[in-house]
Amino acid sequence: MSSTYQNYIGGRFVNDSADGRVEVSNPATQAVLGHVPEASANTVAAAVDAARKAQPAWGRLPAIQRANALRAISAKVRQHRERLAALIVAEQGKTQGLAAVEVDFTADYIDYMAEWARRLEGEVLTSDRPGESIFLLRKPIGVVAGILPWNFPFFLIARKMAPALVTGNTVVIKPSEETPLNAFEFAKLVAETDLPEGVFNLIGGTGAKTGAALTDNPGVDLISFTGSVETGSRIMQTAGKHLTRVNLELGGKAPAIVLADADLDLAAKAITDSRVINTGQVCNCAERVYVDRKVADAFIGKLSLRMAATTFGDPGADASIGMGPLINRAGLDKVRGAVERAVSAGNEVITGGKVADLGQGFHYEPTVLIAKDNDQEIIRKETFGPVLPIVLVDGLEQAVAYANDSEYGLTSSLYTRDLNSALRGVRDLEFGETYVNRENFEAMQGFHAGRRKSGIGGADGKHGLYEYTETQVVYIQHD
Ligand code: NAD
After folding, report:
1. Could you tell me the pLDDT band of residue 16, with boundaries at 50, 70 and 90?
2. Which domains are present in the chain?
3. Distance 152 CA to ligand 1 centre (A)
């Protein structure tokens, strides 16, 4: 049954006659699931105004009260766990297991950020001048616009909202037009709590219309964006007009390095898991492999077997499959085009390499290719699908040089049994994250931040929390 939703602004569900409508469908069955508004510039302005009005009182509350309000929301999320997970499966195409993990992780993340309430600290600085005290205060920035991608749509609400709210900001969230329904269900749960009106606002819409109006609104103090490099660049240009702060979590092309002394079974399993999770549509997961020539045959054999054995289909119909569909036709065409061009350029497909025709949905076979060299498009551009290109290398130094030679710098991984190689790799890899002997998956207490075109600023942990604060230094003269 398809549902229709309203924007959540100032504590009320409202629509404006100028709002358009966005249709949302299931990428596995193509069935229409519902409609959300495409917020007009007026609606966007109303949401930002509501957030502005609510912010001073919210920011003045003791932080522990803000934390309690967050915990009331996470409790609601846990109560509705199954229903929310099923909706994420339907609109995003995640497997049932991963959707349940996403909902649980979201509730845990909100609680984790709430825990910071009693640990938000300023500093007392030493002065050079007699009779002077210097305090560094941490204050909320104001109104945060959170613009979300579709790949972890539910978790990303929390990743923006929870640190923003606990530090005293208010938010306007715009989910992706591909996967907004879970966010609108989230807003209904927020509405059942005592959160003061205007602290959390949600507006539906496309990037071109609603997202662009939100980023161009001078009432926004921080744009916290997760999505593609292209959109991040566009948002930064718009933000430049008002000198609005930006926090950008963008794309990746994570290298996985497999050295000659690596545990090849562990590496093959971890790299496969890392690539097929969410059908390869994860910013930080292994997208290119550098394997030492000495173990290349053995490793590629193990990896190809695992990739080829990955099952896929409609995740709503079968809980046991390893992968669902790609998010939409454009996503499928992007993967198909990238592999077709790689083949035309003389790169060799080992397994997969084709669209999988299941009668409906946007499925692509799990694919392994051997790339001719590090300059191939399939090695350079984010594919965002279940495709692993492999380059053969001679040792750690060459692998690291190839890995670093990329416009992306989000995550990286390294497989070796030698401590010295591991530490040299960590020293020389120029990435925001490095995983050693395990698949890529960040922790909420870490700091998820990309170098180069993968982003500006970061999320999670103490450092992510402080991205939602600004400082005020106070100089007090006394006897
Ligand atoms: P996208 O850039 O197409 O869209 C992201 C969001 O931006 C959507 O809500 C969209 O409506 C909005 N948007 C589009 N144009 C806009 C504009 N002109 N102004 C304002 N908003 C606009 O990205 P996507 O396809 O939803 O997500 C996939 C991308 O996100 C991949 O590149 C992936 O690597 C990246 N990603 C990064 C991280 C990270 O933490 N670094 C996490 C998840 C996804």
Report:
1. confident
2. 3-250+454-477 (3.40.605.10), 254-444 (3.40.309.10)
3. 11
Q: Please report, rounded to a whole number, the percentage of residues in the chain having pLDDT higher than 90.
A: 97
Condensed to tens digits (0 to 9), the pLDDT of residues 214-239 reads 999 999 999 999 999 999 999 999 99
User: Which residues, at least 6 apart from 70, have a Cβ–Cβ distance to it below 8 Å?
Assistant: 110, 111, 113, 114, 162, 165, 166
**Mean pLDDT (whole number) for 407-411:** 97
The CA distances from residue 439 to 20, 256, 358, 359, 451, in Å, are: 42, 9, 29, 32, 20
CA geometry: angle 170, 471, 201, nearest 5 deg: 5
User: Quick check: helix, strand or coil at residue 177?
Assistant: coil
Read off the tokens for 245: 């702060």
Pocket test for ligand 1, best of 24, 38, 147, 241 (most atoms within 8 A of CB): 147
Q: Bridge partners of 21?
A: 37
Distance 265 CA to ligand 1 centre (A): 34
